[in-house]
Structures are given as structure tokens and as C-alpha cells.
């Protein structure tokens, strides 16, 4: 692995900005869906789909040697769909079919609809178990595939997450990396008000995991953490990615009311303008 | 009279007929499936000996996975293993799997079309002394309602062995219902078994008794009693609840004009309900249902409980007499 060069970083920033615009446009078109999580996790998905962090081939989504990306908190799928489309898994035009009748882009992802989706998800709490099953299967067959599981922090309320954490720790699944979107919000409010999760790092460590804490909106940090996770032997790795919910759209940032709703037409226009002009710093062609 | 082609145990009605818990057949079948296919793996939630996974564990220690008391995790974990080519069998008591982990079974196994097989042991009130908390009498209902799920209720240990080997060969999620207590071994190695094909064990013109699990034996005994009243019953071992053998059931309903179903399960949503769905659509005939009537079980000896909850020989006999009278 090499660290990202300045040029790579610049390109990735452009990709992330494009994905954020895609997310807003998709939600505007769908008129329902989740805003905060997808925008907050855009930088993580940019690294997953646009660097060598994950072995994959968008033109051959079933390639046997591919690493597995498991999205446990299925409701943030707009960011995965946008990243996949931009990476070449399917036509970008299809993004506007999100949540519509006949679309491959279901409201919560369905494995059989869209090649490249590894499991159907939506009901929270079961992704880490499935990822652990895949990691265990690869290890027992002596295969090198890596498994990355993305989870929300509110999702950690689910007891099953801790069942999986305990089991993966016991089985020393060093080919398993969990990335937690630590954005501190869930539907009913801030995580620490709804159901306190801290001290989160110590909790995972107590379950036998190696834990990294990073700025989940810093592309370099995300990139380096995923490779650092590969270097840890004997333990599964948990990356606590501190993110800003709604990142990139000023009026959505840090506001839990944006967890589960889309912008309306006016809000969408404002959000896109902000994204296209880097917060008013540059002129947009669409202005 | 008994159907010869079914090749039933010659000691069928003798006092010394061999008895064995149905779950023992699962244990043997799992080892056989493991020998046939190296991708078969076994996952257990802290009940290895009790659900008879111990032989597989001994034979294939590297393919046995201890999950601890985590039935929800176990279902999802198995889905993950299946996604990378394994054929996982997950076992616990039916009350906990597919009871406690039903949503994981629905989303991770069925919606994903995952090649995972669930063995639910200790089903029915015949679990006995453990009491109502451990007596799964809803499991057929909650599994048969799931798209893609195959649901099997073997009638004895010999059939359970065949069912286990057969499920390893079909693609997609499957549920095998097992029981704890010793029950008569009514079938033999030669008795035909095919998923989705109901077996006729006895032929009679007056009524068709469609049973599953150990109540197939109860039904056979009831049929012998009924002869005294001049009633000849057909007995169907309806081991595949889903996909159910509509052809056989419709043919026998047409031939006899009266159907009694018998299962160690809630009447609501169970095997009998599935039969009723088929008959109501195609060929309605008078029906009676033998099973648990919207109640929970309790502690006791298996036979005491089967009688108390209305699943004894006498209950099937009464149901048949009632329906034959209705027919006239």
C-alpha cells in the first residue's frame, strides 16, 4: 500500500463531491429516504470504491477473489448506489430510479436485484454476523479475501451486534474489518441520549477487537485505516469513523432530524448549490 | 389396509416396536451429508449433544462451529458462510431457532435465498417436563409462511435421516422439525421418501387422515380402532409441509370426501391450515383438525400431554367419526 498522493487525493475529493450531489439528486427524485447517513459516509465509500482498498471489478461483480463489502445499515444505501454507479457497476442514469417501482435500487438493498450487493439488508444488527460468517468461511478455506462490514452507531443498540462481536473476537477473524459510522445520531435523537454507547472503543477492545479511531470525513485517514486494519493479525479490527451527519450540506450537518428524511425541492436546490460551489467558494456551471 | 409399497416396519402394531427420538436420525443424516459433501458445516448454539450434532463434531471437528447461546447471530452467521459456498446446518431447539431468530431467518436466509438448513429440535408438547417455554407449537406456521422456505416434519428417526440428507442436496433455505422423546420407528430404510411427495401408508375409502411427525403413528393406530366401527381410513404421511404435495392431497380428498388433519402444533397456521388452503381453492370437503387449540403447553409426561391437548388416538377417532357423520 502506498499513501495517497496529493493528486489522488484531489481526484478523490472530486469524486466524493460528485457522490454527494448524486445522493441529494436521488433523494429529491425519490421523495423519501435517508439524508444524513449517506452524506456523512460518502468519504468512506469513496475510498472503498475508488482506491485499491477493496479488491473488486465493477464489470465482473461476482469475481471470486473479490473482497466483500457488507452494508449492515441498509438505509444508507443511496451512498453505496451512487458510489457503485460512479465506479462503473451500473449506469449513472439508473440512480434516479431509487425507491421506484421496478427499480433495482430498492429502498433497502436487495442482493438479488443489483449485482455487487453482497447481502440484502435493512433490519439492523445482522450485517456483522453475516460478515463474520463470510470471513470464517474464507479463513477455513485458506482464502485471502477480506470482509468489510459497515454499520451505523445507532445500530449498536442491537444485541446481535454484540453477539457477533463476541464470536468474531473468539474466532480471531483477522480478515474482518468493521467500520462504524460514529455520527452520534439516530432517529429519536443523539445516540448518547437514546442509548449511550460510550466508552465504545473500550467495549470493542473488551470483546477481543483491535480498535482504530479516525476522522471518517478525512479521505487520507480512511484510506490508511483500512490498510492498517489489514496489518493487524490475530484480531478483527473495528474502525470507529467519526463522521459528521449530513456532511457537505450546511443545514443538515449535526442535525438528527435529517436522519430519515429527504430534502424538499427548495432544500435540495440549496444543498446542490452548496455542493457545486464548495460552499460558495467557486462558481458553478449550473448557477 | 396398510399399503405394502410403503414398506413399513413389520412390527408396526406390536408392543416391542423399536423406538428412537426423531432427532437421532438427524444426527446420522448430518454425518452422512457431511461425508457426501465437504461444504456441509454444522453450527450449534450450546446444545450440541441435545440436538445430536455430537457425532458430526467428532467426525468433522474442523467443520463444526460452536456459536454459544446466540441463535440470532447463528442464523446470520450461517447466511454469511453460505454466501461463500458452505452448506450450513444450524441447530437448536425449535423454540429458539426458528423461534427467537425468525427475523434473521426471514431476511438473511429467505429473502437472500441463502443455502442454510435449520434443524429445530424439541418441537411439540411431547418435549414433556421442560414445560411450555420449551414446547414449540408454532414453528410450522412461522416457517411455512416464508417464501422459498422448504418445511419438513419427519415422522420418525429413519425418515429424519433421509430428510436431512435430502435437504443438503436442495438449494435454498429449509427447516426440519425434530422431536425430543422416543417415538415408534414406523418406516424402514426402504420406505420411499422424496421432498414434496406425501406418502400413503394406509388406504381406506371413508376418510383421509393427513398427519405429520409422530402423529402419523397415532393416526395409524386410530385407523385400526376405526375398523371396529366399519370405517376405513387412508393415512397420509404428509412430511413436506412446503412445498406441499397438492396432487396427492386433492386426489385423496376427492376419493374419500372427508379429511382429518393431525399435527403436534397449533391448529392455527399449521399443516392442517395448509391442507385447508389447498382444498378450499380446489375441492372443498368437510374437514376436522387435530392439534393444539390456541393454548400453551405445560409440564408432564409426553403421553399425558398429548392426550390433555387433544392429540391422542381417541381424539383422532372422534374427529373421524364426526366428519364421517357430516359426510352422510
Could you walk me through the main structural features you see in this protein, from its secondary elements to its overall organization?
The complex is a heterodimer of chains A (287) and B (328). By secondary structure, chain A is an alpha/beta fold. Chain A has one domain (6-276): Thiamin diphosphate (ThDP)-binding fold, Pyr/PP domains (Rossmann fold). Chain A contains 10 helices and 7 strands. Chain A has a 5-stranded parallel beta sheet, sandwiched between helices. In chain A, strands 4-5 form a two-stranded antiparallel sheet. In chain A, helix 5 (127-140) runs parallel beside helix 6 (159-170). The model of chain A has no long low-confidence stretch (mean pLDDT 96). Chain B has 2 domains: 4-16 and 191-327, Rossmann fold (3-Layer(aba) Sandwich), CATH 3.40.50.920; 19-184, Rossmann fold. A 7-stranded mixed beta sheet of chain B has the order 3-2-4-5-7-6-12, with helices on both faces. Chain B has a 5-stranded mixed beta sheet with strand order 9-11-10-13-14, with helices on both faces. In chain B, strands 1-8 form a two-stranded antiparallel ribbon. In chain B, strand 2, helix 2 and strand 3 form a beta-alpha-beta unit. The radius of gyration of chain B is 19 Å and the shape is globular. The A-B interface holds A 68, 110-112, 118-123, 125-127, 129-138, 140-141, 145, 159-160, 163-164, 166-167 and B 62, 65, 67-68, 70, 72-73, 75-86, 88, 103-104, 107-108, 111-113.
β-strand amount of chain A:
5-15%
Predict the CATH topology of chain A.
Answer: Rossmann fold
Percent helix of chain A, as a range, is 25-40%
- Shape category of chain B: globular
What number of domains of chain B?
2
Q: Identify low-pLDDT runs of chain B.
A: none
Structural class of chain B: alpha/beta
Termini gap of chain B: 22 Å
What is the typical, i.e. mean, pLDDT of chain B? 97
Biggest sheet character of chain A: 5 strands, parallel
